[in-house]
Amino acid sequence: MTPVHLFNVISQNNRWLAVRQATIAGNIANANTPGYKALDVEPFAAVMEQTRLTMAATNPAHMTSAGEVKQAAAVGTEQPWEITHSGNSVTLEQELIKAGDVNRAFKLNTSVLKAFHRMLLASAKV
Amino acid sequence: MFDPLQVTLKIGASGLEAQSKRMRVVSENLANAQSTGHTPGADPYTRKTISFESEFDEAMGASFVKVAGIGRNHSPYRVEYSPGHPAADAKGFVKLPNVDVLVEVADMREANRSYEANLQVIKQAREMISMTIDLLRSG
Q1: A41 touches chain B (CB under 8 A)
Q2: Cβ–Cβ gap B5/A14 under 8 Å
Q3: Which of A43, A79, A86, B35 has the fewest CB atoms within 10 Å, i.e. the most exposed one?
Q4: What is the pTM (predicted TM-score) of this model?
C-alpha cells in the first residue's frame, strides 16, 4: 500500500464522516418536528464498494459511475431507540453519541494523516 | 457541491433559530399568564402554540427545520369568581388565560435541551473544520 493510497482513503473517509455529521445535525435540528424519522448514512464499507473503480470518460455523453461520495444519496432510516407520540424517532442521546463517534474518527484520521505528512516532509527536507 | 461541514453549521443554526422562537412563545405565554380582558366578560389572553416542520433542501441534500406556524390553543379558559374585577361578567366570574405555568416551564426545559444539542453539533463541526485546517500547520 502506497502512502498516496492512504491519503486517498483518509480523505474519502473524512468526506463520509462530514456527510454523516450533516445528517446527525439534521436529526438533532428536527428533534422536535412531528413525524420526522431519524436518518443515518450507509456504512463506509458500502461506500468504498461503490467507489472502488471509476471508468475514464472520454466523451461527455458517457455515463459516469458514482465516482465520488454522494452528498446525501446514502441516507437511510436507522433503528430508533424510541418513538415519541408525535411520530418522531430522534433520540438526542443517541444522536450525540453518534456525533461524538464521528468527531473521534475524524480526529484519528487527521492525526494519522498528519503523521504521514510529517514523514513525507522529513524525507523532502533532507 | 456544498461542503457537508458547512451544511452542518447551517442546519445547526436552523435548529437554534427554531428553538429560540419556541422560547419566545413560551416567554409570551408565561408573561401573559395573568392577563385578563379590560371590559366585562371580555376574553383574556389565549395561549400560543408553536409547531415545527422539516424542510428538505435539494441543493444541499439536508433536512433543515423551520417554524410551521404559531397557532392558538383553544382549550377553555379558567374561570374565577371575583365580582370586583373590571373584566367580571354579570354573574361576577372572570375569565383567566388558559396558560398552565407547569406546562410552559416543561416546554422551556425541552427547548433548552434541544438548543444545547444543536449547539453541541455546531461546536463539533467547527472542531472538525479546525482539525482539517491544522493539517497545514504540521510543517
Answers
A1: no
A2: no
A3: A79
A4: 0.81
